[in-house]
Amino acid sequence: MPDSEDVKAQVREVVDPVVEFLHDESAGAIALFVATIAALVWANSPAGDGYAALWSTQAQLGPDGFAIDLDLRHWVNDGLMALFFFVVGLEIKRELVTGELRDRRTAALPAIAAVGGVALPALVFLAITAGGEAAAGWAIPAATDIAFAVGLLAILGDRVSAGARLLLLTIAIVDDILAIAIIAVFYSSGISVAWLAGAVAALLAVVALRRLGVARIIAYVPLGLLVWVAVHESGIHATIAGVVLGLLTPARPVGGREVLAKLEHRLHPVTAFAVIPLFALANAGIDFGGGVLADALASALTWAVVAGLVLGKLVGVTGAGLLALRQGAGTLPEDVGRGQLAGVGAVAGVGFTVSLFIAQLAFDKPALVDQAKVGIFAGSLLSAALGVAILRGVPSRGRAAGPP
Fold first, then answer.
1. CA-CA 20 to 30 A from 30: which of 67, 210, 235, 316?
2. Cα→Cα distances 190→61, 134, 203, 318, 361, Å
């Protein structure tokens, strides 16, 4: 039998990355909140014209004839966000190989709940927009913002059990998998077969290096950049390159080196404290002057986003989770009751970052983007308030854990 020290080491191997992840997400939520407020204040200040002008500034990367020319907002959304989605890919790979998603029965309930939390908000959105031009944004309320959601549970402290936090984290990760698939399938256009073939060739080169046992991260950087360029030029959204590269990263040691753990440890703070706040700064600014707020409040698009995030997420996550329990398809963590499941479902309606990201992909008209943003802000705030109210009013089962 293994001695107690070996058992403790094995437990720490699983628990420590989760605790560190939760800690970074909670602290990152503060940075995200500050950046969002800064964007709103800047966009509505006397310097508001400068805000719009800055993010519309064109910047070219690469030599003439092979250059990629984007404005600064798109460099953030297509370039830096690829790094964020690379980290998401790493987290998904870890969960699938060594984490909660490895055990099918443990993963079944949060996976089913996440599917409900994606499908019902989309249906609610489509029912309200009724086939108009706003219908292209059907995936906006389907997303969950891990940073804000986990940060919200951290604020509640020991009122929320460790199991509820892990449940929310697992639901959000499955939600990310579904959101990535939606972006790849529904928000890509004009596919170039030649560039797509180039992306596949570069990915095969990454796989070849893995098979040869190359563990030095620097060896993969040029290939990673090549994959990003090829995917960007292929017509598939460039952030998908980050996800695929993350999923190709080995979750188990290569040549004695913990490649995935090292990458996640180094890059997660970069994305949590730099990339995501910069994304919020570039995208969250709405100039409420000129009747923008009034137009948004009168828009079916705005209310479709609000209803999808608040009602769709709560009913979708909770209903699908309860259905899984009734059918014996999964189990809740020991310290999570059905009331806490509802609270987690409400908190999952905090859709901020990925919702904003999808809104930028869904609409070309600035007016529609602004209406969607107002809906995202309102829906996320209402979901947060509802989630806090439910979780504060429902006793935690078993021993609660302190904040991460």
1. 316
2. 22, 21, 21, 38, 14
